[in-house]
Amino acid sequence: MTQPSSLSGFAPVARTQVPALGLEVAQYRHPCGAVHYHLACADPHRAFVVAFRTPPADSTGLPHILEHTTLCGSRRYPVRDPFFQMLRRSLQTFMNAMTFPDMTAYPFATQVAKDHDNLLDVYLDAVFAPRLDPLDFAQEGHRIEPKSGGGGGDGSGGGGSWERKGVVFNEMKGAMDSTDAQMEAASARILFADTCYRHNSGGEPSDIPRLRHRDLVEFHRRCYRPANACFITYGDGDPATLQSAFSRYIDADAGTALAPPTLQASAPTATQIDVPAPLATGQDPLDATATSLTWVWGDSADLDEALTAELLDRLLLGHAGAPLRRALEGSGLGRSIGSSGYGSSYRNGVFTVELEGAAPEDYAAFPPLVERTLAAIAQEGIARSEIDAALHQVEISRREIRGDHYPYGLELCFRLIGPWNHGVDPLPFLDQSKAIARLTERATAPGFVAQEIRRRFIDNRSRLWMRARPEADFHQRLARAERDQLAIETAALAAADEQRLRDEAAALAERQARQDDPNVLPDLALTDIPRERTWPEGRKREHGVTTFAAGTNGILHQLVAMPLPRLDDDELDLLPMATRMLGSLGVGKYSYAEQAARLNAVCGGLSAWTDIVADPEDASRVKGFLVCEVKGLAHRQSDFMPLIAETLLETRYDEHARMRELIDESLQRLQGSVQGRGHQLAARAAMRGFGGAAALGHRTGGLGRLKRLKLLAQDIADENPGATGHLRTLGERLSRLVSKLIGGERHLAVIGDAAERADVLASLAQTWSMPASTQPSASVPFTPPARAQITPTAYVTATAVNYCALVFPTVPLADPDAAALSVAGRLLTNNVLHPKIREQGGAYGAFAGQQSSVSAFVLASYRDPRLSATYADMRQSLDWLASCPDDARLFKEAILGVVADLDTPGSPAGEARSRFTGDLKGTGPTLINQARQRILSVTAVDVRRAAARWLPPEGGSTAVVTSADNAKASGLEWAIEQL
Asked: Mapping DSSP to helix (H, G, I), strand (E, B) and coil, where does residue 619 land?
């Protein structure tokens, strides 16, 4: 490793080898107080994070709005939106900014060295030398401006001739739309009344308008200083070169480090509260009900405390047979256990026990149930076998190399920023083996569990009982308050103030319409794009087995994929339920609780899912597979490798009470996802008449499934006299379906650093010596749904914002137009939808893209205050596309974005899994690389031709997730469906 230059000012503090992760961690400190941790390894996939302590002093969203505004132009890069411009000029594998309750972080990752240097320059200048233009604050934070036209459902609650706008203002309206969000905010206010956590760092919509631009500038001046910064880098970069870049921003006035966030020392003054929650008129109140008990625990920055808390979480709730989880799920009081478990988002850890979908009249029975269960555990203890199994799960979670959500290097960086922020040595959080050894010694001592249960739960006065109270006028009440506040503010305006606001609105509109010269930003050329993507290579073996030797740190993955046969409508609707039941019911002689304990003891989990895509050669055909996976420590392979076959053959569909619990949980989980991914659900709904793979998403994982789950939940409810018969029939149908699904051919894969060991292959052969099926129907190819006529539909729920989708049927991956449509999506996003719908319209996000896996093209908006005006913008964007300019820069940016998405890697196991299933679906390296070459050569002529053929501006299918009031006020013709 190169020694840092003395000119940088960073001095080495320590070097630590982490053999388990293949790293050397070098720690450096600058005299001003800035610290740098470099995670050195041979990985060219480099990662970077800079983090600052940013404790909020109120709920105006100051840290969040500053996070947005720092990325709107800086001293060296004085363009309006360098962050979004770099998304177009980069091959980044991850690029974002994040506001936490007590800090703000700016991470990115890339596999291209030149790209890393470009992004590093832009990120450093953004955070240390932002322009913080008042107009950017108005766009990203909040502003008052003259009300625009465009039809109903397009305002943001303004009154008279004025309206309030702002990206974060609208984002947080969407973010606070759920019962979960309301309860979490209320919990923090009560439990952490003496700390910064009582404030909403993202911003309460009612408080955001109090924030002033001068507050933003001062907060940046105080918090975004080198003395208050932690730099973390990962990969094969040179620390001296990195520190030279950092040091350009460390001058004589480096600021002062802020103190780490403090612990909450005293018990809360309230022990129980009611929390208002949003409910739409006509919506099932159980969609918005929840009750919870939350206890404040010790310092989450203490690794021993954090591991003990995780162990207790696993012992009490970690699997279906865990005592507290079993008591909750078997009580019949609610649909699911929601976000129950240990959380470390604050300096104090918290433990929450929750029931979602509980009837308010049953709330009073909840605390006694929890108290009785915990008292019984403290009295009786927990079996040593369960403690050993929970310790086993802790080891697996620390060993597993992830990276399918974040790049692996970034995941390791994130392990460090939390402890740094809390003022403790972060290095023990990387390799936790010594701490786990200490945990094992503590946990296996006599009386450990009983003692911890008494101390943390029974005798702990820092406890809060919360009860959600759904209100059908929740959003109307907030909207009235917003209008009233706006009316008060605008009524007090003098004529000169009104003119100032009009001038500022005009200046912002002019600024948003102005085309900055992006050439001031660093750039990549198309020649910087690797010619081919890197793919893991598997070895084909006997009996349809493929082995992938991947670096998985001792974790072994076994997969089986079975082609879907032809399914009738009933079987198709049952398909997602069948995959949910696999691994969650009893197997053979074991009840579901006993089977859950078996899984917990020997593996890291068993899961099942379906993978259904358009045939890459023909959109009218579909390729679909049932996939099952089990993973665990390689030295336990003989214990867990038989589990998939056992589960497929011997799952017990006679456990009717457990089936009801799983159905209720699925219903609650899907209902709860609406506010988080409403744009995706709207897009699936808009595709439901397309036929082929596109028609299936709404039915098997979208709002169509939600509707069927609600009807099924009514049929099997305890109070329904026919519930037992419904459950019995359902179990029989599921059993027949799974028998049919597993009756055809089987494709097997083993992934891991032990995948090619002789004993592993022998276990696999023995496990899958199942007799061949004699079911003729199991070999008939899957037939997708046919096309159908649908009407534009508004799915109404309790929301203050809109999730809009406009969708067109297009082509599969192998079609030459797929490449042109992929580039077209980026062109639309970059040049029309982002400036029109996000910057000017105030939505949190807007995008377009070709989804070749379902042969469809999607335009969508997310947390959008507008409705009809957004659809007008979407259709006008298609007019622009039909005659898009032949601009080399615009096309290069679009192509870079498409290839960046194509090349984003997963974890070692995730990459192998994708290769295995991709080969089965016909989307392996050959086809992907052919598509890549077509993308690299797309021209304006290609895009215009594809747009003319597939994207007529007045065509397409629409669906929106919205409120009933917005749907009515939009002036658009909608069929209404209540969620």
From this structure: strand
DSSP string, 48-93: EEEEEE---SSSS-HHHHHHHHHTS-BSS--SS-HHHHHHHS---S
DSSP, collapsed to helix, strand or coil, labels residue 940 as helix
Taking the C-alpha atoms of residue 658 and residue 716, their distance in angstroms, rounded to an integer, is: 12
Write down the pTM of the prediction: 0.93
Q: Are strands 747-752 and 545-549 parallel, antiparallel or unpaired?
A: parallel
- Residue for token pair 């911003």: 203
Q: At what angle do helices 703-715 and 723-741 cross, to 10 degrees?
A: 130
Paired tokens of 254: 């480096």
Helices (H), 651-789: 656-672, 678-686, 696-701, 703-715, 723-741, 758-767
Cβ atoms within 10 Å of 257's Cβ, excluding its own: 19
972 backbone dihedrals φ, ψ, rounded to 5°:
-95, 155
Q: How far apart are the C-alpha atoms of 851 and 569, rounded to whole Å?
A: 25
Residue type, position 848, single letter: A
Average pLDDT of the residues of the chain: 93
Phi-psi category of residue 711: left, alpha or beta, with phi > 0 → left and psi -120 to 50 → alpha? alpha
Helix (H, G, I), strand (E, B) or coil at 627: strand
Ramachandran bin of 692, using left for φ above 0, alpha for ψ from -120 to 50, beta for the remaining angles: left
Largest Cα–Cα distance of the chain, in whole Å?
Answer: 86
Closest CA to 703 of 723, 725, 679, 730: 679
Residue 236: count of CB within 10 angstroms of its CB: 12
Q: Using one digit for the tens of pLDDT, what is the confidence trace for 539-552?
A: 999 878 999 999 89
Per the CB < 8 A criterion, the answer to whether 234 and 110 are in contact is: no
CA distance 610 to 627: 6
Mind listing the pLDDT tens digit for each residue in 839-857?
999 999 999 999 999 999 9
Distance CA 413, CA 410 (A): 5
SS3 354: strand
Cα dist from 899 to 90, 819, 934, whole Å: 10, 11, 11
